[in-house]
Structure prediction request, 353 residues.
Amino acid sequence: MSKAFRFKFVGEDVGLDEDETLQDVDPIADLESVDANTPHLLDLDDILCSLPSNIQYNTIQLDHSSNGTVTLVRRELFDIRAQLMAEDTHINEVSTAGLSTDDIKPHIYEGGFKTWECSIDLANYLLSHSQDLYQNILNPCHIVELGAGTALPTLFLFHLLLSSPIIPKHPRRTLILADYNPSVISLATIPNLLLTYALTSQLIPPASGDLEITPALLSSFKQGLTHRNIHICAVAGIWGSAFASEMSLPDEPHVQSHTSAHALILASETIYSPASTVTFTTTLLELMRKHNERGTNVRALVAAKRVYFGVGGGVDHFLNLLREHGGEAKEVWATGGMGSGVGRCVVEVTRRA
Prediction:
């Protein structure tokens, strides 16, 4: 069995240590040959019905000098662990890994219960460009987050969608959230969307607390999505060709004929291992190709550390793979490096024509 490894964390959840080292990982494992989760869609209603009667949450503050501050909410890690321990149906090797002190267990648990540093970077980057993004989401759009986990970048965009006024006929907006582990989507990703709805609807204060899960709340959540024509799609499983096929979107004539339709693909901390970076890169470019064929204006943003020590992954390896497979990238944000800790950046990916 693959050994686990740990990132160094400040606090229980968010990884903020600048000198993390990844250990005991096989960087050349062939992920496509691993008997891992077969990609499959998850049912939103089933996930919502499986939530406990009460969930605990905390907040993260995004801040930008020109665009102000935004408070995001996410389920507490200890609350997720409490549900895992309370429900025997969830106790398996994946859940046991999520309960342990190991941050990642390759091919079993990919760390989605915790919030990683670069996801905060990407969410802040989106805040810094919120005015342009807001104009895009007034048109038909698809927002895809790969390796979503706690999904902070998508939570920010969901906040924008919910904050927009309700009009008689909203264009279709689709949120697609993907993670290796279905338990992560069920226990972290979707609950965080529900919490975001509750905060935006002023059902909870912008401070740590708890949310009572009632039939009335779930009904209001689903009605709110319907009124704004927001569709949520959850996909679990390993990256690769089967994953890209599962992510294929249904035909939507109004999107195909709408010249202002947009697609935004997001990812953070997905390139720490060279083997998984190969699969991630080809999957990302395949999803972009599919959107291009639909006539959609597509862009991708990937947030990562420049180097993942002890594993071999990092931005340079990712950029080389992009060039080999017909992609290009430009750096749009960066911090750190040169004696001030591990460098981090956000790159924008495009496909060569």
The longest strand covers residues 54-64. The first helix runs from residue 44 to 49. The CA atoms of residues 6 and 102 lie 5 Å apart.
